[in-house]
Amino acid sequence: MRKPELRIDPIHDRAVIIAPRRGNRPHDVAETTTAVHPKECPFCPQALKKLKVIYGHGHKNQLIQIIKNGFPAVSLDNPKAYGYQEVIIETPNHDVELGELPIEQIENLINVYQRRTKTISQIKNIEYILIFKNHGGKAGASLVHAHSQIFATGFVPPHIVLKLKNAQTYKIESGSCYYCDTIKKEKIGPRKIISNKYVTAFAPYASNYPYEAWILPNRHLDNIMKMTTRERKAFAQALHYILKKLNSIRVSYNYYLHQTLTDEDEHFYLRIAPREQTWGGIEVGSRLVINSVAPEDAAKFYRG
């Protein structure tokens, strides 16, 4: 059994204690997720006929459709909270999870992410684009039907500004990109999940979440639009592989991808954050995260 270990991520300003035995604590509080019947689901085909679909890609069972977010936190007509939000409905099938879809469909979804990033980045004064997915009750999903979202704002969140500043400092001091260096290290280390010519996936050294995984293009790309067809396919294969593994243990998860339009030197990555663990007083009060699954063990799970 591993002893607890403090790990620091200086770029993302995170401190994590890896404490595997803590995952064996007793629990008597159950987490429930309420499913919506297809007849009441706003993302099923019948309901979408009543809404304005602003973008569509594919056909029949592989149709991906986009609608504006009906409950936006930001909008283009509100200067006090300026931004844009939309919902990407990943499949017309109500009971199919993203990880159960064929790789081709996931590749199509990433293609949609690329196209929508290009379109939204052209909106005046948009500086930051977040692509994200909530899956399961613990991850904040309010609807079962497979969907992801895009959240774009006229400002860059403070923690992203700090991350970019730290990455720039690293580059000045080392002469290289932090993420490029991390890829070189992780693709031959114990935290590797997948590595090929185009992408690398690994469990990060200072993982905040049990079974956390990152997927990065091996090339230094600042946004998803710049991926080639082959890179997109490899990215989709890695995402499909990881989500299938998470589905096998029925865990909620978030994934997200930051893109800062004012910084053309960042290295984009997709972070997959399983939400098996509920944060308590230590995490909320001290911001010191306790992770019950060592990333080395998480990588073994994914590779197995």
From TrEMBL:
Classification via InterPro entries: ADP-glucose_phosphorylase, GalP_UDPtransf1, GalP_Utransf_N, HIT-like_sf
For the Galactose-1-phosphate uridyl transferase N-terminal domain, which residue ranges apply? Answer: 75-157
- Which molecular-function annotations from GO does this UniProt entry contain? UDP-glucose:hexose-1-phosphate uridylyltransferase activity; zinc ion binding
- The record lists Zn(2+) as bound by 41, 44, 94, 145
Q: Known Pfam families for this protein?
A: GalP_UDP_transf
* Keyword presence, Nucleotidyltransferase: yes
What cofactor does this protein call for?
Zn(2+)
Q: Which Gene3D superfamilies match?
A: HIT-like (3.30.428.10)
GO:BP terms for this protein?
galactose metabolic process
What does this protein's record comment on cofactor binding?
Binds 1 zinc ion per subunit.
Which keywords accompany this UniProt record?
Carbohydrate metabolism, Metal-binding, Nucleotidyltransferase, Transferase, Zinc
UniProt feature coiled coil, ranges: none
SUPFAM superfamilies xref list: HIT-like
Positions of the catalytic residues? 147
Q: What is this protein called?
A: Galactose-1-phosphate uridyl transferase N-terminal domain-containing protein
